[in-house]
Amino acid sequence: MRLLGSTWALAGVCAVASLLSGAASGSVVAKNVVVKVMERTGDKLFEQTLKYPATLDTVPKVKATTPLVITFDSLTTNDTLLSLDQAMVSFQRAGTEDDVALLARSAKGAGSYKMDISRKNYRRYFSSAPGIYSVALVLGAADHGGLFYELGNIEMVGSKGAKPKTPAVVYGPKPEIHHRFSEPQKMPNVFLSLIFTGLAVAPLVVLVGGWAQMGVNLNKLQLEPVGSVVFMGLVATYMVLAIAYWVGIKLFPTLAYALALALPTYLVGQYALSKRIEKNI
Asked: CA 20 to 30 Å from 56, out of 50, 82, 252, 274?
């Protein structure tokens, strides 16, 4: 996690939190602070145990292959282990206001914390910005205030081939953006579309013509006009549904609509036919 601003700003936050917390609740104390530089194999290149407010005796060198590990315990003034709301290790590069704050995670249990720089974080934050860094613990708890503890200086060694950091913001005109719209899809010839439409409508024309040749008598629909009109309307709705499926409705919604129309069509048709039979009798 990268934070903007100076380490002293973080120290000010801790001081304010300490003043706001009650004196009876105590304050945060860091004990058993151990700073280690280790090989990836586990061999120790540097190790020193600090007692507040002592600092490092020497300036250890840290590389991507020799990670820095910091462990500590957080307690109250009554020597009670304390779970922190904020536990960070701040790195401020000498001569600049660049800060990197890495999270210290709970290690063995409540009150024990550990921070180690992974190879990924080292390449991300330190490979391209080598130099001397001031290291400090930035701790805070809502009910016990905060603590800012400067541990001393360490030297971050740059990696081979790492490029120095350059400003991310570049002022000036941006390159022109060229939009390319997709070409319209090829459509079939209008003549073919008309032929296909005619073939689709032909069965309906044949059906009406067959009814005319068979001498279908529509006058008897007057025996039950309401039921007959509703039934024919439902049949017409089926035809509209078929056209809608052909135009663009998907299969499963079409089947759902058809099933919804099935029961009303059956009931209305049964009612209209029964009424016609009764009147004929």
From this structure: 82
DSSP annotation string for 36-90: EEE-TTS-EEEEEEE-TT---SS--EEBTTB-EEEEEEEE-TTS-B---SEEEEE
- Torsion angle of alpha carbons 186, 189, 195, 196, nearest 10°? 0
Which pLDDT tens digit goes with each residue over 105-125? 887 777 889 988 888 888 888
Which residue, among 83, 78, 70, has the nearest Cα to 32 in the 3D structure?
70
Q: Cβ–Cβ contacts within 10 Å for residue 188, how many?
A: 8
Which of 242, 217, 234 lies closest to 272, judged by CA?
A: 234
* 99, 5 Cβ separation under 8 angstroms: yes
Ranking 125-134, 140-149, 181-190 by mean pLDDT, the lowest is 181-190
Q: Contact at 8 Å (CB) between 148 and 136?
A: yes
Cα 33 from Cα 48, distance rounded (Å): 8
Determine the Cα angle at 220 with ends 214 and 226, to 5°.
Answer: 125
Of residues 89, 196, 216, 79, the one with CA closest to residue 149: 89
Which structure tokens are listed for 73?
A: 């315990």
